[in-house]
Amino acid sequence: MSIHEMRTCPVRRTRMLSTVLFLAVFVLLFPVQLQAANTQLTDQAGLLTEEEGKEISRQIEELETVTGWDIMAVTTKDAEGMDGETYAETWFDEVTKKDDGIICAIDMDNQEIVVRAFGEAMYYITDDRKEKILDAGYDEIVQEQYGATLKAMLWEVEAAYDEENPRDNYLYDEDTGKTTNYQEGHRGITRMEIVIAALLAIVAGGITAASVIGTYRLKFGGYRYPMEKNGSVRLRQQEDRLVNQFVTHRHIPKENSGSSGGGAGRSTVHKGAGGRSSSGGSRKF
């Protein structure tokens, strides 16, 4: 071994050791972070078979692809002193990174099944739809068919997405009494929409300016219209007189709070422990 190799050997070893340590830390930490960011099904209570878990995960993935929401399912034997709805809301808040989504839960501690909807999903999970989801889950949970319970609830969530028109529905905040329709809840525009609108305005303005310049063959600073010489102003007095005034009164009926018969569907919402609003509910079994 040459003197140069003897000198560089410790340096190479140090670099190799650093690389190995970095890879080890990356391998250990990255899967945990990935799981935390993409948790779909968490069977803390151990209620599901391996095959049921795979089927429910596939069902959730398909529903997420269609809706663009975060869809979650969780089971627990320890609600940490919370009721079923609060536990589900807290779980969703801690795991998700999106504003829109739904969580279905089986709480063995409180003997409850739960569905909570967040963001845009609240306009789909109306009070009537909530009852249908809980009905579907209840038929299965009383028979201790836990996998079938979650699958039935998720199928009803998909039915709500397919059949509900969110623009016909509205939110009722039980904490404040305020109502919000879909348009009011989605009045904001995205940054991308602002950028596109600005670019279109610039392009349109440029085309207009180029057209005017080309038509009149103007040169900047080379022409000036003699307004003082050629301009004139004529003023004429005009009066407006109110002859008759009519006032018409019309009775506006109140919105129908039910979703049947084509009326608006109401979603009763409240703020959860995490500070975000959600619709849905729970049922004891």
Sheet/helix structural class: alpha/beta
Annotation field: number of helices = 8
* Average pLDDT score: 78
Spatial arrangement of strands, main beta sheet: 1-2-3-4-8-7-5-6
Question: End-to-end distance, in Å?
Answer: 77 Å
Low-confidence stretches: 25-38, 188-193, 246-262
Question: What's the total count of β strands?
Answer: 8
> What portion of residues belong to β-strands?
15-25%
- What sequence of helices (H) and strands (E) makes up the elements? HEHEHEEHHEEHHHEE
User: Could you give a short account of the major beta sheet?
Assistant: 8 strands, mixed
Helix content: 40-55%
Rg calc: 32 Å
Shape: elongated
Which helices and strands appear, and what pairs or packs with what?
Elements (H helix, E strand, L loop, with lengths): L2 H35 L3 E3 L6 H18 L2 E7 L7 H12 L5 E7 L4 E7 L8 H15 L4 H18 L6 E4 L5 E3 H4 L5 H26 L10 H4 L35 E6 L5 E8 L1
Parallel strand pairs: 1-2, 2-3, 5-7
Antiparallel strand pairs: 3-4, 4-8, 5-6, 7-8
Provide an overview of this structure.
- The protein is built from eight helices and eight strands.
- A hairpin with a 4-residue loop joins β3 and β4 (112-118).
- It is α/β, with parallel strands linked by helices.
- α2 (50-67) runs parallel beside α5 (146-163) and α4 (127-141) packs antiparallel against α5 (146-163).
- The N and C termini lie far apart (77 Å).
- An eight-stranded mixed beta sheet has the order 1-2-3-4-8-7-5-6, with helices on both faces.
